Structure formats: structure tokens, C-alpha cells
Amino acid sequence: MNDQSEASDEPEPSRKRYELEETGFNEVPKKWRKFYRIWEGALDTLAPNEILCPVCKVVIRSVKEIRVGDRLYCMPCMSRLLVVEAEDGTLTTDVLY
Amino acid sequence: MADFDPHAMAEEEFLEEVHSFDFWFQAVDGYLRDRSYGQVEGTPDPLMEDGEREVLITTLCNYCVAETAALDASSGLVRLAPNRHAKIFLATQVVDEARHLEVFLHRMKELGVVDPEGEIERRANPNLLRFKKRLLELVDDRDWDSAVFAQNVILETMEFTAFKAHLEGADPVTGEVLDGVIKDERRHLGFGENDLGRRLVTMPENRSRLAEVRAELDELVLRTFEEVQQSAGVEPSQRLTLGREYIEAVERLGLT
Description:
Chain A is an all-beta fold. Chain A has strands at 2-3, 36-38, 50-52, 58-61, 70-74, 79-85, 91-96. Chain A has one domain. In chain A, strands 1-5-6-7 form a 4-stranded antiparallel beta sheet, with no helix packed on it. In chain A, strands 2-4-3 form a 3-stranded antiparallel beta sheet, with no helix packed on it. Chain B has one domain (46-252): Ferritin (Up-down Bundle), CATH 1.20.1260. In chain B, α3 runs antiparallel to α7 (144-169), α4 packs antiparallel against α8 and α7 packs antiparallel against α8. Chain B is mainly alpha-helical.
């Protein structure tokens, strides 16, 4: 993950890691598929390593717990995203052009 | 797995990957393999009542107008593309749009339409025809930003949300066709917003021109899909979503 807060590729000790499995998402080449899943709508609960793409509404998944300042890529719609804190304290994303 | 973490890619590496023909080929292989005209062989296709069939044919006619507009415009835009990424991506969009037109025409034939082109002429929404004419004028004028905005942001976002709403209540075969098209549209609308977003960072003066294009064109498409959805019986609450996703996109681009 592109992470502004990290000086190296090593995750911080407190950041939980995730083993990703296939979700049935099939809109990108096979090697990237486990990093995305279909959003099930407003009642869909996102895990700490997941965030919704504001452009195409696909759930983006990471091997690490997502935190403010992380940069993520949405391959299905080619968007580059920066994780920010929303007014209600939840995590959301800004699109980086 | 670290070797294949997309979020670890450098920015230029990411852009090279997602705009490539190779990425497109492997992506569509994931959801179109073993499908003929976007359909899985053996999917049940029960006989429709006359009224339901007529509504679906009118809807498909308008989808064909929109897809033809995007096919003609995106093929023209290949030559205008300001960089290799955009040129190659648009070549893949041309193929996508041609496929969309083909699968919708094929579905109309399955519904018993003998002359789909003639039926499109009879049933096409006038607002959508006006939008198509204006979009092609922007391409002919070599106005890259305006044409990409009209096609990949206005039209593609509207199609994306309209197709998703239609999918909710579609018959099994039409649903399968729409499902494949929606997956393509995700790339198209994402390309438009991100390409324009990057250009507006370096050329913010273009924003006023795009706001003019928006004022001229978005109402035509909003009205078209509102009318098409109304005739298709889509619930008013779902129709609201149609406009909301589009407005979110133009707000992110600062075009409000």
C-alpha cells in the first residue's frame, strides 16, 4: 500500500494484517481480483481493511487495516484515492487526480 | 502476495497497467468468457406479456442510441487523445461500445423485433438524439475536454446508474446482458472523471468551459433517462439515485 505515514514497506506493529481470499469479483485481471469485491449496498458492513470507492462503488480491500493517509487504487475505475476522516469520524476517501 | 499488491504500485506503474489493452483483455475475460451476446447458454427466457415486451423494446432502442453515440464519439476521440494511455484506453472503449450495441440489438431480435434499426428510429427519445448530435459536434470540433466530459462523465454515469436500476427488475436474459455492460461502464466513467480531473489540475481555466457544457447537456440526458425509467416502471426512490451519482461526480470535479 502506498502509505504517506510510513518510511518503509514494513507495517506498524499495531496495524492488523489480513489474508485476502477471492470474493467472486471478476472485473480486473485475475491476480488483482482478491483486492476488490462487489458492494452490497447501504447495509453492507465494511471490514477494517475495506473502503468504498466513491467513483464506481466497488469495495477496495487491503492486506492491512486501512488508516487515514493511506493511498489506495481502485483498478476497476482507475481511481487513485486518499483515505481521510469524515465528519462523523468514519474513514472515507478523496479522489486524487 | 506482496508481489501482487496493487496498492503498492508506483503511480505511473498503476496508470500504465489500468490503461493497457492487456488489462482490458484480462478484465473482460473474467466476465464475458463463455457468453454469447453477453448471455449464458441455457438461461431461461420466459414469454413476456405484450405490454412488458413493448416497454423493454423501447428501453433497448434508447440504449442503442446511447451506445451508438458513445461508439461514434469514442472512435473519433482516439485520434484526439493527448497521450498514449488515453489513446489505448479509448481503443478498448470503442470495442466495448460496439459490443454493447450488438448485444442490445441481438436482444431486440430475440424479442421478435424484425427491423431493430427501424424500430430505433421510431422509438428514440428526442432529448437523447439531441445529446448525441451535440456530442459528435464536440468531437468534430476537436474539443477533447468537452467531449470526454459529455461522453465519459455525463453519458456514462447516467448509463451506469440507469442500467443498474434496470438490472434490479430485469428478466433473466436482459439482466445478464446488462450485468456485463455495467462492468464495462465502470471503466468508462472512471476514465472520464480521472482524465479530466488530472487535466483540470494543470489547466483550471478549462473548468468554466466544462461548466457551460454541463449546463447545456446534462439536462438532456437527465430528462431522457428519467423518461425511460418512468416508462420502465422504475420506482421513484431509485430514480433519485440516477441524478445523485452524476451530481457527486461533477462536484468532485468542481463543476457545480
